[in-house]
Amino acid sequence: MIVLISSTKEYSVPVSGIQYFIDIREVGIPFLPGDLFGDKRDVFLEIGFGRGEFLENLATTFPNSGFLGVEMSLTSVRKLLDRISRTGIENVRVILADASFLIRHVFSSSTFAGIYMNFPCPWPKRKHARHRLSREMFINGVARVLTPGGFFQVTTDSQNFLEEVVTSLSESACFSKALIERNPGPAIGTKYEKKWKAEQRDIFRMTVSKVLPPKNCETLRSDEMPHTKIPSSAFSPSLLHKVTTEPVSKEQFTIIYKSIYTCTDKNEYLVDTVTNENGFEQRFFIKLVEGPEELLIKLFSSGLPFRTEAVKASVMELALLIRDHSINGFK
Ligand SMILES: C[S@@+](CC[C@H](N)C(=O)[O-])C[C@H]1O[C@@H](n2cnc3c(N)ncnc32)[C@H](O)[C@@H]1O
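A: This is the predicted complex of the input protein with S-adenosylmethionine.
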């Protein structure tokens, strides 16, 4: 999946003066959501808010707490922003991104008093080791960003999904024993709750609280801008199309160089690049600038991705590929 991120300007809200939309590219890492509200209130996160009924409801009911919603759907984000900017509600903020990445690498540790997930799209089947790893990383991320004693609550119509969540939570050892309720009240009022209730399906709600922080779960270091240089003598533009032929596969990630563009300045090129790290996909450009002595290879500053291991590696691997093709080409 691709993280779609739009300009904050689109969502500026002059009426209340509140910037509801948080452009995740512009925040420092680690990102402390508490700072969004300018005081020391408890902050709660909803992952995948859909139409946002639940988030809005909570925020209205608890005006002294802060509520952050993270959604991957641009349409959902736009609709909620339209609504909250009209109501002038003060304690909601919205991010357009893949929440699993943010909880793993972007939010600061011990930050949310509670995390809600209502009717999430069930995650991939348990058989695949790669999916198992991404589930573990997700759960680790939840444990990392919750405050001590903070809760994680999942509401779903899928008993199988719930069992998998409970298994992963108990394996992590960071959480209390899961409390599971069947058809709990009161209603949360979301589209999917209404849909499944109309079909007479059972609804399950699971709640755990954090008892221990996880091991080995760190935020990204966002200060590093990967770049490298190779001698210009090892480069010829005709070599470039060769890097688009095969993906670079490593244990933790895959890199695909999709296509090459020549800039209007003829000594510059853009390489359209996709990285995938345990399902977290980013698409961005790498820029090549050919000087008399050296070829500079760096991230293109427009639409910057998170500087993950795969993104950093994509710059270095590109340099290696160009060098290898150059050596082979001269044989
Ligand atoms: C089945 S809908 C449920 C929406 C809403 N919570 C409800 O109860 O009606 C799941 C939502 O989760 C969002 N979603 C799925 N994976 C996500 C992720 N990794 N980060 C953020 N949102 C995600 C989807 O875009 C979708 O809106």
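The pocket of S-adenosylmethionine is lined by residues 47-50, 70-73, 76, 98-100, 118-121, 190-193 (CB under 6 Å). Residues 227-330 form one domain.
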